[in-house]
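Re-running the complex after MR caught last week's input typo. The corrected sequence lines follow. Everything else is unchanged.
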Amino acid sequence: MKNPADAEEVAQEAVLKAFSNLCRFRAESKFSTWLLQITYNEARMKIRKDRRHLYESIDGQSENENGDFWPTDYADWRPIPSELLEQKEVRKAIQDAINSLSPNHREVLVLRDLQHLSMKEITTILGISEASVKCRLQRARLVLRESLAPGLDGFWGRGEPYRKVRPW
Amino acid sequence: MAIVEISCVEVWREISNYVESDISAELRERMNAHFKTCAHCTAILNGTRNVIELVGDGRVFQLPEGFSTRLYQKLQKRP
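Corrected-run output:
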């Protein structure tokens, strides 16, 4: 969900739904996996309901999206001091970059790199194969690296002196 | 035995699995040899690691203020 109000609504609806259906939890997976599965279903339903024209891009297997992604920016990053994440604009830059990913790629990245779930848990929640998860994760990480790389704005390529184009 | 060279494209295809340590020992050795001589792929490896570290930091996405209170109110109102 790109809209914070929608995200909150979905998250809260998912918790309410889980609460009402606790008796259906069979402990075949971890409780958190079950709750995330409900949350993802809620999110998909909300997106379908609000924006039917996006139906295809949410569930469809776009060839382009699942094809290889090759980097075009080779700028190396300096190590990023952890304290920079205290800055609102740094967090905003990362959030915007994640939001710019396609839904398919965003969800695997969020589940793996943000929620730190195992491959098995992700395949259970999303109902896709491990190979698909790995493929989407590879692309999501490379796209994100490309959009956050310090040289992307072209200063390196134009031979101009490095300007601080990113907050780090 | 000499290490079989690997191309940049093959490295990019496996870079995410490399970071996850989800590749064979033989492939890891080939990729390590490639990183020693290819600044572009090393930059992409470092950037990928940075991305994972940044995304994984709990400060990037935090619950909005009042989320728990609103959720608690909804739970109390449920039939």
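None of the earlier attempt is carried over here. The radius of gyration of chain B is 21 Å. Chain B touches chain A at residues 9, 12-13, 15-17, 19, 22, 39-40, 42-44, 46-48, 50-57, 59-61, 64, 67, 70-71, 74-75, 78 (CB under 8 Å).
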